[in-house]
């Protein structure tokens, strides 16, 4: 029995699954989702293909799991925010939590989505889930009767984190710096609570 296999077998099931997700995410981002094979993922992990297929039946299942975990983080933020009274402090805290939730692995997931947009488009249920959660978060931030102008600004505020990740990566910026700037921009773009919701612009 080779040492790599022994190391693999000492892992718990959850540890192995987490390691598979981590390696697959790195390969999908670096080489592209379509170009990466299950064989490459197994080789990178130094495990057999049957061992890999025991945890995931396909690349699609891996990427779905990654995004479902990301959506679960959105759900936690939305659930917490919905239970709080509206206030400027809440808005800042919501955006802060969203920025912090984008750190580390979730930042890599954003990079994956940007680098593999055509492949991600095929995962329609995930795209729908992300869109509906964005709508929920925006409603919490600015209320259900906000104008189209303010709803667009609120969406831009939330998505500025994604834009910051793309731009910061190209510039070689540190993760903490990227997210600090993203939060600063998001708070500037977000409409003021004093703006009259539902009123026509101009």
From TrEMBL:
The keyword Transcription regulation applies. This is TetR/AcrR family transcriptional regulator. One of its GO terms (molecular function) is DNA-binding transcription factor activity. It comes from Actinomadura decatromicini. PANTHER family: HTH-TYPE TRANSCRIPTIONAL REGULATOR BETI, HTH-TYPE TRANSCRIPTIONAL REGULATOR RUTR. Residues 37-56 bind DNA. It comes from the Bacteria. Keywords: DNA-binding, Transcription, Transcription regulation. Residues 14-74 form the HTH tetR-type domain.
